[in-house]
């Protein structure tokens, strides 16, 4: 009788262990620990589209001819991504004083970018230049270059 209870108890324990092993309850946690994945944190990360929407506005680096003077302008994008509000930093006074009047940016079909004042008048217009850089084309007497400050780039002081 004792022998039969020991055998039945062993079988029950064996079936329980096999059930746990089959369910992956222990192995999944061990694998996660080995790979360094924190499933609770990973599940809380927003999808890439939501991350992009929450990123800081794009930053334009504006430089005078010869890059003697540099300043930043922060461009927000509207839904279509072809225009938006523009916040020009005070340092832009030294690059081109009229830049401080710019409050909106707009990208045209030809790739040019125009900064507008509150009345909708063009303050400065940029055309695509070499690489990722833009060059001012209007007004003609002003030479200003513009490029986008990348995520890994350092801000200009």
From TrEMBL:
Gene3D superfamilies: 2.40.128.10. GO terms for molecular function: endopeptidase inhibitor activity. InterPro entries: Protease_inh_B-barrel_dom. This is Alkaline proteinase inhibitor/ Outer membrane lipoprotein Omp19 domain-containing protein. It comes from Phyllobacterium salinisoli.
């Amino acid at each position: 009788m004792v022998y039969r209870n020991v055998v039945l108890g062993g079988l029950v324990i064996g079936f329980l262990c096999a059930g746990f092993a089959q369910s992956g309850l222990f192995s999944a946690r061990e694998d996660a620990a080995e790979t360094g994945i924190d499933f609770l944190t990973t599940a809380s990360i927003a999808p890439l589209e939501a991350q992009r929407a929450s990123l800081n506005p794009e930053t334009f680096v504006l430089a005078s001819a010869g890059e003697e003077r540099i300043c930043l302008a922060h461009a927000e994008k509207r839904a279509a991504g072809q225009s938006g509000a523009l916040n020009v930093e005070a340092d832009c006074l030294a690059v081109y004083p009229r830049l401080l009047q710019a409050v909106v940016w707009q990208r045209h079909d030809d790739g040019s970018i125009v900064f507008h004042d509150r009345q909708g008048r063009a303050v400065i217009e940029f055309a695509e230049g070499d690489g990722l850089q833009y060059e001012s084309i209007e007004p003609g007497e002003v030479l200003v270059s513009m490029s986008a400050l990348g995520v890994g780039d350092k801000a200009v002081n």
